[in-house]
């Protein structure tokens, strides 16, 4: 029987927030917030944290998580989860849930799982949300996506895409950084070289598109809070304290 795993990559050396997974909000490290959300996803058979850091490893063990130690040399989260998935041959579908999404909606994770399981033409699944604010469209920290008529991603960029030569026509979509992989697609992608467009934009999904792999998307209403900056962290603190 094929199984589905949520694997949460968590590294210590973040350029903007050092030791991010271990930063505590309401006396709970961010990685625990993410793990607890993932554990609520009914379609997943297991949740695994994948890290390159002993302190994160010990922290995850302390709150009862299944955790695997990985190499320090991985260039992106997908490489880290591929190393972990190798140890679990029974897993056919792998969900890459970022370790900095402490308020991820569990329905969104379910949607990513359903997308990859039920689409024969897709190698990878992911989510989009319509961008409502003009300033977000120009924000390089908010990754944008253009999709085709069937919902497959055409391109991802930190730039504003599509370019508006004619105003008021196009809709803009934010990429929500959660991926579903078929097992063989994950291993194929992580063995490929990083193309120039991936290196330029620092977006690993471009490696898949560049090599002809297909990414199916679904547009959801949910607007996630990924913690990339101190401003993101402060916003999450406020929301967590209100709860």
Q: What string gives the helices and strands in order?
A: EEEHEHEHEHEHEEEHHHEH
Low-confidence stretches: none
- The portion of residues assigned to helices is 25-40%
So what's the oligomer here? single chain
Strand content: 15-25%
Radius of gyration: 17 Å
Number of H- or I-type helical stretches? 9
Shape: globular
Largest sheet: 9 strands, mixed
Terminal CA distance reads: 39 Å
- Mean pLDDT across residues: 92
Secondary-structure class: alpha/beta
Task: Give the helices and strands, then pairings.
Blueprint: E1 3-10, E2 24-25, E3 28-29, H1 30-38, E4 46-51, H2 54-62, E5 66-69, H3 77-85, E6 91-97, H4 106-118, E7 124-130, H5 134-137, E8 144-147, E9 153-157, E10 173-182, H6 183-191, H7 196-201, H8 205-210, E11 215-219, H9 230-242
Parallel strand pairs: 1-4, 1-6, 4-5, 7-11
Antiparallel strand pairs: 2-3, 6-10, 7-10, 8-9, 8-10
Helix pairs in contact: 3-6
């Amino acid at each position: 029987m094929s199984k589905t795993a949520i694997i949460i990559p968590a590294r210590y050396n973040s350029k903007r927030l050092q030791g991010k997974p271990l930063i505590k909000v309401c006396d709970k490290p961010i990685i625990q917030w993410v793990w607890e959300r993932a554990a609520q996803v009914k379609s997943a058979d297991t949740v695994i944290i994948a890290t390159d850091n002993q302190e994160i490893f010990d922290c995850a063990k302390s709150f009862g998580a299944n955790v695997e130690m990985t190499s320090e040399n991985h260039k992106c989260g997908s490489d880290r989860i591929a190393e972990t998935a190798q140890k679990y041959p029974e897993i056919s579908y792998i969900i890459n849930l970022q370790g900095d999404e402490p308020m991820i909606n569990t329905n969104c994770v379910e949607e990513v799982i359903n997308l990859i399981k039920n689409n024969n033409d897709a190698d990878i699944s992911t989510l989009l949300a319509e961008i409502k604010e003009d300033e977000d469209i120009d924000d390089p920290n908010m990754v944008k996506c253009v999709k085709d008529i069937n919902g497959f991603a055409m391109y991802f960029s930190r730039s504003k895409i599509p370019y508006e030569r004619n105003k008021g026509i196009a809709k803009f979509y934010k990429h929500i950084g959660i991926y579903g992989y078929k097992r063989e697609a994950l291993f194929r992608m992580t063995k490929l070289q990083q193309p120039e467009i991936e290196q330029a934009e620092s977006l690993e999904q471009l490696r898949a598109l560049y090599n002809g792999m297909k990414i199916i998307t679904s547009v959801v209403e949910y607007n996630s809070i990924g913690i990339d900056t101190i401003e993101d962290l402060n916003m999450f603190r406020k929301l967590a304290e209100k709860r």
